[in-house]
Write a structure and sequence with these properties.
- A hairpin with a 2-residue loop joins strand 2 (about 25-35) and strand 3 (about 35-45).
- Strands 1, 2, 3, 6, 7, 8, 9 and 12 form an 8-stranded mixed beta sheet that branches.
- The chain is mostly beta strands.
- The chain is built from 2 helices and 12 strands.
Length: about 160
């Protein structure tokens, strides 16, 4: 299983093709461990380095949508074994190019329910701090799997920006 990370993909290709006119990023965040992973993604238009490295602050945060383009993206759980306490029907699939098959679940935590999300009437000031999101996703992992995720250097993920 891949270590925990936050990878931000820009829409540079859409801008070059004239499909979009504003630079945005899809932030794809994963906290993983021996039992599986917790995944969440959102959109942002500006990523700033925090005064305390390696932290980042995401500005102009908005929700990412499911494939139907209507439903807000929820936190997803990818488990190596079926979760006995879940009423949801999992889908079995690979995750992050792993040869293993995972049971994938969606839980009812979307962007607006995350404690790390700071809402604001000014869209630009809608923010998420990378450390707070990482800690919140670690807590979800520990709550679901009853074990902590893999330990990372500086107890924080690396934020990659493409």
């Amino acid at each position: 299983m891949t270590k925990s990370f936050c990878h931000c993909f820009s829409n540079k290709e859409e801008i070059e093709r004239g499909i979009a006119d504003k630079c945005t990023y899809l932030a794809f965040c994963v906290v993983s461990g021996e039992h599986g992973a917790v995944e969440f993604s959102f959109r942002t238009s500006y990523i700033d380095s925090d005064s305390v490295a390696p932290f980042k602050k995401f500005y102009d945060v908005s929700e990412e949508f499911e494939e139907d383009n209507k439903t807000s993206r929820r936190i997803r759980i990818h488990s190596k074994h079926p979760l006995s306490q879940s009423d949801a029907e999992p889908t079995e699939k690979s995750f992050l190019r792993s040869s293993e098959r995972f049971y994938s679940y969606k839980i009812s935590l979307d962007l607006h329910k995350l404690q790390s999300f700071k809402d604001n009437p000014d869209n630009y000031l809608r923010t998420i701090h990378s450390k707070k999101l990482y800690d919140e996703m670690k807590a979800v992992y520990k709550n679901i799997f009853k074990y902590p995720p893999d330990v990372l250097k500086n107890d924080h993920w690396l934020v990659l920006v493409d």
